[in-house]
Amino acid sequence: MAEQLITPLQDLAARPQERLTPQQAVDALCQDLVRDAVARDRVGGVPLAARQWIRDTGLLGLSVPTPWGGTGWSWSAISPLVRQVARVDSSVAHLLSYHYLGLTIPVIFGDAAGTEDLLRRTASEQLFWCNALNPRDRRSHLRAEGPAYRLDGLKSFCSGSHDSDVIPTTAVLESTGELVIVILPTRTPGVELLDDWDAIGQRQTSSGTVRFEQVAVQPEQIFYPSRQGSSAFSSARTLLAQLNLANIYLGLAEGALQAAVDQVRERQAAAPDQPKDPTQAVLARDRFAQLWVQLQGASAHYERALTELEAAWQQGRALTAEQRGSTAITIATTKVLATEAALAISSAIFDRLGARSTGASHGLDRYWRNIRTLSLHDPVEAKLQEIGAFVIEGSAPTPGFYS
User: Fold this and answer.
1) What radius of gyration, in Å, describes the C-alpha atoms of the chain?
2) Whether 176 contacts 156, CB under 8 Å
3) Of 61, 99, 386, 390, which has the fewest Cβ atoms less than 10 A away?
4) Alpha-carbon torsion 372, 375, 379, 382, what sign?
């Protein structure tokens, strides 16, 4: 595994262990992450200190209902915290937000008793979930062996697998050919985490490959998405995942723009007596204003989508296909706007700042590399096709793993 740069959050760790609010915990996390964000981006690996801080401060139980030991926060409450982290470190925001997405799996597909048990243990033990679903990779197979099952195969793009406690993954059930979800402790014998993540961005998400070799699986660890009937709620996780990505994109855009503005201010402060060209000053303001306006439009649409998503999620199994379809289009639109804004801003800041901004010590390139890597999760062109079909034919996206 790549060399680790562990930031120990020394300032707060030295204090008496008072209980921090979630906002205080995230504030402290972000203050720490920004100290060595550029250096950690260079080495990749796993942000172990950040992950442990997230465990220690109870952030992993935010979405767990309060009767089960969690905080019971809504998506609308969790979303700003994820955005705040994404501004300074999109890898950590990725890991944290996909933990919350993982917790929806037993809620949507499990029975009441099994769901409560999983979520209670997550809150009480602060279990960190990763994401190894990747339904397009069908190299993992589940075979019945007596009363239990055996899991074998490979799964790529397994974000947050290293240092995780719970690993949800998809596999082909050999007896029926259907795609099922298996939820396992990461340290289950036969689960091997490979250190092969080498993308240009999101370097600390450890989104590499997991190998399953003769992994014993019990029936209660298997969930069956295809057996949910016609319930629109069965595909609600996809809506959450898509809007979550847009949220991280916007955090990246906000972080990139703020970093550029900080450089402009630093240069002005370093040379207060240098003659200023009024024409150039006006041009600079206009160019930064253009980026800011683009970001405001995408952010405003995100808030609309978040409101619709919250309403859809609260419907539970009463969610209708019509409401699900309308929400999916709003989220698809948000994702397009957020993608375009983040890619444009993370690239355009160099035009605004000039050649000196390309210095490796500034690390401004990481914003573009991260958004470029993450935005290819599923191409924005697919969202435009869905939106076009809705505009021309009035048809909502077909529910699936990415729509």
Assistant:
1) 22
2) no
3) 390
4) negative
